[in-house]
Write a structure and sequence with these properties.
- By secondary structure, this protein is mainly β.
- It has one domain: Rieske [2Fe-2S] iron-sulphur domain (Rieske Iron-sulfur Protein, 3-layer Sandwich).
- It is built from two helices and ten strands; from the N terminus they run αβββαβββββββ.
- The protein has helices at residues 5-10, 43-50, and strands at residues 14-17, 26-31, 34-40, 74-78, 89-92, 97-100, 105-107, 113-115, 127-131, 134-137.
- A four-stranded antiparallel sheet has the order 5-6-7-8, with no helix packed on it. A three-stranded antiparallel sheet has the order 1-10-9, with no helix packed on it.
- A hairpin with a 4-residue loop joins β5 and β6.
- Its cofactor is [2Fe-2S] cluster.
């Protein structure tokens, strides 16, 4: 028995199979009516995210606080710009992360704000790894 569409829209947890997401690719799913980006980060993206000086970030947060331990290759963020609520575009901008074309906010491959008017990093939704290839959001 699966929950109906109204229950899912109200916030029921969703499971996402990560198997078909190739390295360097991301997908967008919806949870509670919000776009959720799931990015399978490359080693280069992970190294870049981990090597950023926290003092250079408007909203300092280490990459390790934005991913699950042992699953550094997976970034899961709510795809809503923290400036005015637009939906940023993945793999755009100067930091190989997300770019919001509405007002120019740019986020890095960890979803942290790096440039533009957005005041905060992209939010990380509550999620857990059900297995190495499946997550539950919510």
């Amino acid at each position: 028995m699966n929950p109906d569409a109204a229950t899912i829209a109200a916030g029921a947890p969703i499971e996402v199979d990560l198997t078909p997401i190739a390295e360097g690719q991301d997908i967008k799913v919806f949870w509670r009516g919000k776009p959720i980006y799931i990015s399978h980060r490359t080693k280069k993206q992970i190294q870049e995210a981990q090597s950023v000086a926290l003092s250079s970030l408007p909203d300092p947060q280490p990459d390790s606080a934005r991913v699950k331990a042992g699953h550094d290759q997976w970034l899961v963020v709510i795809g809503i710009c923290t400036h005015l609520g637009c939906i940023p575009i993945a793999h755009e901008g100067n930091y190989d992360g997300f770019f919001c074309p509405c007002h120019g906010s740019q986020y890095d491959s960890s979803g942290r704000i790096r440039q533009g008017p957005a005041p905060a990093n992209l939010a990380v939704p509550p999620y857990t790894f059900v297995s190495d290839t499946k997550i539950q959001i919510g």
